[in-house]
Structure formats: structure tokens, C-alpha cells
Amino acid sequence: xxxxxxxxxxxxxxxxxxxxxxxxxxxxxxxxxxxxxxxxxxxxxxxxxxxxxxxxxxxxxxxxxxxxxxxxxxxxxxxxxxxxxxxxxxxx
Length: 92
Fold this sequence. Notes:
By secondary structure, the chain is of the alpha+beta class.
């Protein structure tokens, strides 16, 4: 008998794919938390938010204009260090 997964769900719960899935879930959760802390207009333009190993928050906004606007909101966030990047939705 082989130890190969028989269903896609089994494959998704093993090894590297499981870690990748857990990281994606963590990032979605963190993005949702930060969205709730931002004003509604700025929150709509947040592509993602994640905290790195040093505790620095990285916000990714969809346009430079919204990146500039969100800079005025960072004092309301619970992180001392915040970096803001721009990546259009659907961009690479």
C-alpha cells in the first residue's frame, strides 16, 4: 500500500502546501484586522497587510495616492514600524 494522497484535500494538508495554506490564512486574517483599524476609504484600497519577523507592519496599497493617504493613518495602528508599498490589484 502506498502513502500517496488519494484526494486533493489530503495533498493540501501535507508538508509545504500545508505551510503555504497556513501562511495565506494568517495573512488574510491580519489584513482583515488592519482593514478594521483603517478609515473605510483607505481600507478599501488595502491589498494586504503582514507583520515581518522584526514586528514591522507592511501595508500594500493599490495606488500611490492611497499609499500617501494611509500614511496619515499609521499612528492609529498598533505597530511602531510601518512600511507602505504599492502594488496594483492583480499586479505582480
